[in-house]
């Protein structure tokens, strides 16, 4: 859920990382212990200012999170039987689902398609029935097959996520070597 925020902040706004570097960072952060946001903030802090940047970025992420989490737990326990709290939590889950779907599209842009998804052209097509993409947009079939297979295996088996990511990387490396 944090991935879209990280991409917007560090790739588009601050331009600390390229989209490809960001994809590599997230792939590595998924395989290392800890939350993606913690691994990403430590890495970007290190890039910006070495050890002290990594330390301050990590503390800057941890301290507000602890405070806000404790406050939220205390408030939710106090009002847990209220219908509006139940509705609030359901809405939060839907928002989280939206962020996960958005993160999926980010990774599809970087790995499954030949170029970024032409959202503006698609929107134009849907609203005016005129579609003139800037380049040739097509699905990279081997990458899509690997992604779908990894998804289905994760859903239908007990294979942990990290070995699944490693297997997908090995297969992709084998295909393109």
Break the fold down into its secondary structure elements and pairings:
Layout (H helix, E strand, L loop, with lengths): L2 H11 L5 H13 L4 H44 L3 H29 L7 H10 L12 H16 L4 H15 L2
Helix pairs in contact: 2-3, 6-7
Description:
With 177 residues, this protein is mainly α. The chain has 2 domains: 1-109, no CATH class; 112-177, no CATH class. It is built from 7 helices and no strands. It has helices spanning 3-13, 19-31, 36-79, 83-111, 119-128, 141-156, 161-175. Helix 2 crosses helix 3 and helix 6 runs antiparallel to helix 7. It starts with a helix and ends with a helix.
From the structure above, extract its key features:
177 residues, mainly alpha, 2 domains, 7 helices, globular
Summarize the structure.
This protein is an all-alpha fold and 177 residues long. Helix content is 78%, strand content 0%.
Total beta-strand segments: 0
Order of helices and strands: HHHHHHH
Number of helices: 7
Q: Which class best fits the helix and strand makeup?
A: mainly alpha
Strand content: under 5%
Helix content: over 70%
Report, as a whole number of angstroms, the end-to-end distance. Answer: 33 Å
Provide the low-confidence segments as ranges: none
Estimated radius of gyration? 20 Å
- Form type: globular
Mean pLDDT: 78
The total domain count is: 2
Largest sheet: none
